[in-house]
Please model this.
Amino acid sequence: MHIEEIIQKIVPADRGCMKLAQTRFDNLIKPVGSLAKLEEMTSRYCGIKGIYEKEDLDYPKRDLLVWCGIEEAAQAEKIMHAKWPVNVLAAETGAKAVALLVTLEEEADALEEGAALVQELVHEKGLELLGFGCLSNPDNEMVRTAMTGALLQAAAMKVPVMLDGVAVCKAAKKAADMAPAVLDYCFAGHVSAEPGAEECLQELGLTAPLRLNIPDGAGEGAAVCFTLFNAGIKAYKEMETFEEAGVHAEMKEFSLAEQSKKGAKA
Model:
């Protein structure tokens, strides 16, 4: 499938489901908004899936894709043999770290190759969430272009991607320039210690829940953030609203009305 066809399949996340999911969070027995980014991630995931009932929401099967060029072949081999930090961190959340070596020389080929790789992995493994890391220099045009194609394909398949590092964020910006709705499917895993990392996320309009001072975007931050992704879903599924708990009168300090008043005064 050509990139133009992939782009045509990309649609925004369902805003109605996102709003209903956030309403459920607001009505849980807790202060409104107290789970912060966990609520935002889970509500947006509901919008991507087009669901909001807690019974319909499951923990997504996920993998972590680490993109690299020929210069990083030795590191890629270590990942493929599960001998790199990202392997351990990904496995903790049930994910497998996969190294993807980009050796193409034409931008159009790299764009479609990245898309094809994601399509194959998602179909073969039934993946519903991806993490992207990159071992290459952010200026490696072919690797960045392959990731752009991959992000477009993921969005077309309604598979969210946890972004990690400057190179991945630059690829996301390029994908968003081609199809703005791609950003509905992009989550920021962490702010790396790379120069320009904060600015790259700001340009995408994304904020990250973690700042781990990891010096690169090789995927470790995305792997750790998978744990937070699970935590938001767990709260959504297992916490009760006042109605579900059979409480007919909310504790005043936790009521939505009171919390809304506090928010307005802040």
